[in-house]
Amino acid sequence: MTNKERYKQAFSVLHTSDDFSLEVEKMAIMSRKNRIKTAVAAIIGFFALTLCTGGAYAANVGGIQRTIQLWVNGDQTTATLDVDETQGSYSVSYTTASGEEKVISGGGISVDMFGNERPVSEEEIMDHLDMPEVTYNEDGTVYVYYREQAIDITDSFDDNGICYTHVKSGDKEFFMTIKYNGGYGIDTVKYPNPKNFN
């Protein structure tokens, strides 16, 4: 006797009830209703997700924009920072004490030790904005500005037009080498060699 014949013999004594077809119909109807409810819920979920994603995308189209505190020539100023993290670019707009609107912009890429490039991040931009700055004034004076400090270095240049200065504020410390009207270098460990910049 084959397995098929054995199954027939074993289950041949079983009989279905008269209500079986009615129960099957009810289950089929309930199954259809559940599938319709599930389909409707899935469609609503899809549209909700699409709207939320579209809203999030629309909110981030311009990148990051926020209000920051920026040190400008020794004074703390409220400024608006716009960052486009996909490009690594930024612009900072603020109003000077005299009421003049100013915009600083920049950006760049960061290269890791393996040569991989990526746009600079918001954190790196904020670090850059918190660096010392050299300013040449119309009256001939030269100042290094760092946070609340305004250091007059006009008479600190040697015969080669080089000035070495050290600035510190809070937990940050910088060694600066400034070439008169020729750029400057900043390091956290030692004075940069003036031959490395213009």
What does this 3D model show about the protein?
The longest helix has 40 residues, at 20-59. The model is unreliable at 52-61 (pLDDT under 50). The chain is an alpha+beta fold. The termini are far apart. It folds into three domains: 3-59; 63-130, no CATH class; 132-198, no CATH class. It has a four-stranded antiparallel sheet with strand order 1-2-3-4, covered by helices on one side. Strands 7-8-9 form a three-stranded antiparallel sheet, with no helix packed on it. Strands 10-11-12 form a three-stranded antiparallel sheet, with no helix packed on it. The chain has helices at 3-11, 20-59, 122-129; strands at 64-72, 75-84, 89-95, 101-107, 109-111, 117-119, 133-136, 142-146, 149-152, 162-169, 172-179, 184-187. The protein is elongated.
Task: Draw up the topology in text.
Layout: H1 3-11, H2 20-59, E1 64-72, E2 75-84, E3 89-95, E4 101-107, E5 109-111, E6 117-119, H3 122-129, E7 133-136, E8 142-146, E9 149-152, E10 162-169, E11 172-179, E12 184-187
Antiparallel strand pairs: 1-2, 2-3, 3-4, 5-6, 7-8, 8-9, 10-11, 11-12
Task: Describe this protein with a few key phrases.
3 domains, three-stranded antiparallel sheet, alpha+beta, elongated, 198 residues, 36% strand, 3 helices, 12 strands, four-stranded antiparallel sheet
The gist of it:
The protein is of the alpha+beta class and 198 residues long. It is 29% helix and 36% strand.
